[in-house]
Design goal:
The protein is α+β, with helices and mostly antiparallel strands. The chain has 15 helices and 15 strands. Helix 6 packs antiparallel against helix 7.
Length: 423
């Protein structure tokens, strides 16, 4: 089963018990088809939920996640924050289910705790701060205008493949220091990584091949950069000079961080942007308001970030016993923060199922929170704003093509892989 599926949904379970907290499984067919009914029940009935199959806890309410993400003593990201890394001790799950098993890809920001994390992040953050995002805006707008021109000439197209993915991977390459002619090759392999086998649990062989090819390219790039150094102000060169705990980081760590930057900078933005395009098509009155007043674009994009964030969860491993609402979390157990559930928590967002460009919620979990908040948040919001501004300026009235919509459904990601529009 590919993670890229047509938009038509399989029949959902009709029994209310099918969505009970005890039935929630990130790898379950119905969970991946539509996790929202599970999130509702988890928030209301079992907000601190233990899953003995994986020896893992799930948090589903906004305030609980916001608070626990700040606790750097009780939890660690060492070993990795993703479901395949935290849920790798799955009963009955084949050893080859995760390409992360038994692979030594080096340490990156996502797998480091403070103070090492703080030291490394501080050396990379200048490339992602608001000032850096502003400096990238002219290039972003130039790229986007060219891609929108192509959509106009054709009378439509896929806003992901023809616009958002092409933009995001090129901006990621610019920040990191990769040649733009490599952008489409990188994007194709990043896209492959969502593919699963027929069970829906294991990564497909195609996905694993893409993962290995990416890492090989990053290692080769690091070796070449060591041999032919430059003084270009990019992330690659910052990593080559980076130190943590008084020592230069290894080339393996450099490659692992490059992987994080390229995948993070390419993967999620197109899904959020396409969600905003789709939401505005479904709410033509709000779209008309945004067209008439482009200052509303950031609010429209931010609301899509809230409602349709693609990364369903990331987490930590417990390293010190912690009591959360009377539940005892023990060392070595997994803890997953269900961000997509928290962003629809009515305790934080009034009428959370309503798309509202005027909401401008003061807090979101779409980029995480605390010290591990997404490093590229400012750049991503700039890209999303520019793409929406340019698309709506040229194509203010469009309709989506339902039969061409493709979705991604995995234990970690939800969102669109293709969103055709016509006008």
């Amino acid at each position: 089963m590919s993670a890229h599926e047509a938009s038509a949904d399989a029949p959902a379970p009709t029994s209310d018990s099918a969505f009970a907290p005890s039935a929630y499984d990130p790898y379950g067919t119905f969970t991946q088809q539509n996790p929202k009914p599970f999130y509702l029940r988890l928030r209301d009935e079992s907000p601190v939920h233990y899953d003995e199959r994986y020896d893992c806890w799930y948090l589903s309410r906004f305030e609980d996640i916001w608070r626990e993400e700040q606790d750097l003593e009780a939890y660690t990201v060492v070993g990795g924050p993703t479901p395949p890394q935290l849920l790798k001790r799955v009963r009955g799950m084949p050893e080859e289910a995760s390409p992360f098993e038994n692979q030594n890809f080096g340490d990156a920001l996502a797998t480091l705790d403070p103070p090492t994390h703080t030291q490394l992040r501080g050396q990379l953050s200048p490339h992602f701060k608001p000032k850096a995002a502003r400096e990238l805006e002219a290039l972003t707008r130039q790229l986007v205008r060219g891609y929108v021109d192509e959509l106009v000439e054709k009378g439509g197209g896929d806003v992901i493949g023809d616009l958002a993915m092409r933009t995001s991977v090129r901006i990621a390459c610019t920040i990191v220091g990769f040649p733009l002619e490599k952008a489409d090759w990188l994007a194709e392999r990043v896209n492959r990584m969502n593919e699963r086998d027929a069970s829906g649990r294991a990564f497909s062989e195609h996905a694993f091949e893409g993962l290995v090819e990416l890492h090989m390219y990053f290692h080769e790039t690091v070796a070449r950069a060591r041999q032919f150094p430059s003084d270009e102000p990019n992330v690659l060169n910052a990593l080559l000079r980076a130190e943590a705990d008084g020592q230069r980081i290894t080339d393996g760590d450099v490659a692992s961080n490059l992987f994080l930057m390229i995948v993070g900078g390419t993967e999620t933005l197109p899904k959020v942007f396409s969600a905003a395009v789709k939401r505005l098509a479904e709410h033509p009155d709000q779209r008309a308001a945004v067209v008439a007043n482009p200052s509303l674009v950031p609010g429209a994009f931010r609301e899509a970030l809230r409602m349709d964030m693609p990364t369903q969860m990331l987490g930590r491993r417990v390293r010190r016993e912690k009591i959360v609402h009377g539940h005892r979390l023990l060392p070595e157990q997994g803890l997953l923060f269900l961000w997509a559930s928290a962003n629809r928590d009515p305790r934080e967002f009034p009428d959370p199922e309503r798309y509202d460009i005027h909401r401008n919620a003061p807090r979101l979990l779409s980029f995480g929170s605390g010290v591990h908040m997404c490093l590229g948040a400012h750049v991503a919001q700039m890209e999303g704003r520019v793409m929406l501004e340019e698309l709506l300026a040229r194509i203010p009235e469009y309709e989506t093509v339902p039969e061409g919509i493709e979705r991604i459904r995995t234990e970690m990601f939800q969102g669109l892989a293709a969103l055709p529009i016509r006008f």
